[in-house]
Amino acid sequence: MNEKMNRVEFLKNLGLKGAALFAVYCASSGLSSCVNESMDPTNPTGGTAGNQLSLDLTSAAYTKLNTVGNYVVVSGIVIARVSATAFAAVTQVCSHEGRRQVVFNAGEFYCAAHGARFDTSGKGLNATGSRGLKTYATLLDGTTLKVTL
Ligand code: FES
Fold it and tell me: CATH code at 81?
């Protein structure tokens, strides 16, 4: 019998059952099977923190970012041109129910699933969006837009 099973047996002996046992077991074991398998809204790209996306704003795929109000979605990140001098980047995965439906519209981020609204700094603008969105730092270097994951 391995150590994990021993721990379950130990917890059962304490009288824990069902959900209570599961909760205690998961909290104490770090088992991958206890992890929610759905996408992590704080890390939709699965990328390593500190890595960067580099977008060449002269390439056809990204030239729309030269116009205020436009956006692109790259690796699960919504990157918007919010003003003549500024960009904003947020996760495409909504904090409400995890739908991958966040877009940029009329100067704010918006999830079409149930109407969550977020400002360009990821702050919720209505009850549905109250949990906000994870944001990513952007930096324009010449004609290259860098987004730090
Ligand atoms: S999942 Fe986005 S508003 Fe519900």
Answer: 2.102.10.10
